[in-house]
Design brief:
Elements lengths: L4 E6 L1 E4 L5 E6 L10 E12 L7 E6 L2 E9 L1 E6 L4 E5 L3 E5 L4 E7 L1 H6 L1 E11 L10 E5 L6 E5 L2 E7 L1 E2 L2 E2 L8 E8 L4 E5 L5 E8 L1 E4 L2 E4 L2 E5 L5 E6 L3 E8 L7 E3 L2 E3 L2 H12 L9
Antiparallel strand pairs: 1-22, 2-3, 3-4, 4-11, 5-10, 6-9, 6-11, 7-8, 7-10, 9-12, 13-14, 14-17, 15-16, 17-24, 18-23, 19-22, 19-24, 20-21, 20-23, 25-26
Amino acid sequence: MKKKITYILDGREKHITPEEKVLQPLPHKDFRFANPFIVLHHLGPDIIEAGQQLRIHPHPHRGFAPVTFQLQGSGYHKDNAGHEETINAGDVQWMFAGKGLLHSEGPSPALLEKGGTQELLQLWVNVPAKNKWDAPSYQSAKKETLPKAVQQNGVELRLASGRYYGFEGPLKSITPIISLIGEVAKGARIQLNAIPNYWALLYIIKGKILINCETIEAHNLLIFEKENDEIILSAEEDAQILFLCAEPILEPVAAKDNFVMNSQEEISQAMEDYKNGVFGTLNF
């Protein structure tokens, strides 16, 4: 049966640095978390001028996985756990912060040198309390390695993580989640299936879709009821979407700054640890 939409959350402008702003549909004033989905940021599309210097300087994370879906351009990542990589349009990067690390991110050196367009999504995926102190890890997947789990005339949705109708995404998550990203051409109609009693979210990156007789514009995040399993949509304009599905983590969430923990005491400890150098150093 069709799933009902319980929330439509608009992406509101938020500055993440004095120079850079994003659209943030999650968390939202009307809806806090869909644990394990904590934060969703949509950066760009931004025009990078040739020779521009733009970077988010080293900063700490603890207790969750920041996941980057590169939409346009190319992004460069470096952390003090020894991971360093450039990802390109269509690629996905999955960094697990675990007990804590420092990392720096931004447009790749080549993009800064030549100029171009930069656009990405970053999703914060929570983990259970028992895993928050695990060692940090890093993985990525090229666009061409993502299985085309939903493919029909005018439609291509690629599976980054989880299992979906016989397909398996290449990226492994401590918290099992289904993440599908791709394009739906104007006039195309598709059915997505979610696991009953799991969270199901749909973000419209661009374009316009019709779902449950309601037209939804770009930059809105849909939160569906947990009951039922079918999501049927059609594109009123060429669209790009991100579909997410995961079992709820039934634990308290304390999220502040760059940390996602289970209590305010753990957040305060993370802040103290960063202040006292426990996260180490990263010269970049």
